[in-house]
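In the current project phase, work has continued on tokenised descriptions of protein folds. One protein thus recorded appears below exactly as we store it.

——
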Amino acid sequence: MAHLPGSGEEIRARVPAALEAYEFACDNVLLGGIVDADTKGLCYRYLADPDAVDFDAFGGRERAALEWARAIAWDSDLADDALWDRLHELYSEPELVELGCAIGFALGQQHWERTVGLPAQTGLP
């Protein structure tokens, strides 16, 4: 059941500053930016439906990004020294900042979508 009528964009448009902030985040962090959009999209799909992503199918940067998304979303203790060592081997610090912000923003966005009665968007926006 929709608790607020309309699409996510229509709902955000009721507060122009909210729509503008969301569009800026999409353009500069969620879809754009320095981290590969496919890697971020994989994390967004995982956050929306953890059962839909098989970690064993991925290695390297993608696997590390998925493991960090799991730690951010469900168990911060999983972000142990071993994961951080791998993240630092595979990503620059600016990439880690962007990826972490994108994962956190997408997680919050997906929770918000569900609470207003929309399906969680796996690819954003």
About this structure: The chain has a mean pLDDT of 93.
